[in-house]
Fold:
Amino acid sequence: MLCRKSVCTDDSGSVPVYLNVYDLTPYNGYAYWLGLGVYHSGVQVHGIEYAFGAHEYPTTGIFEGEPRKCDGFTFRKSILIGKTDVGPLEVRTVMEQLAEQYRGNAYNLITKNCNHFCNDACIRLTGNPIPNWVNRLARIGFLCNCVLPVTLNSTKVRHHRIDEKADEEDEKKLTSQANNVGISSTSCSSASSSPACTTTRRGRSRTRRPLPPSSPLIVGSSS
Structure:
């Protein structure tokens, strides 16, 4: 066992477990050398990267993707946390166990962020925590919330909010057109089956909205 910089690399397993670290801000280029910075991270094992992000729904915020290529972030470095003998299906079971704890609408940059998730996942898989510097700013912020701006209290993942303002403007335009004509009108042709189609009846506009997305983590060991 080799211990270095607060990370113990346990070679007792056969499958490497990496922590992939990304920059959330260009200022990390300076803060990194001071042991600070705002980072996103993901756990890479068996060729899949698992991470945690925010969305507005009470489903898990854990998602998976291609290693070192998380959209919206700049990859910085990959750190070997340790090795494990946990197989792919067992890894999925671990993620499903963590899914209840890490819900998208419970994300908080100070108390429950992507780095907290990665630390818990790495401990379960290897028995080793992530390096202290990756989440140091969150610990500082826990002692003094004014250190971090409120706008940093979310990380966008696969879900995107509906543009309510644009929808409202479209509805007003369609309602005005329907009132001028005096008859029911449909904004889409009858041949179109698009779910975004907007229908106006009796001067009132109704827009079909998508249902909340399902969990970004594919549940089920058969997948």
Summary: The two ends are 34 Å apart (CA to CA).
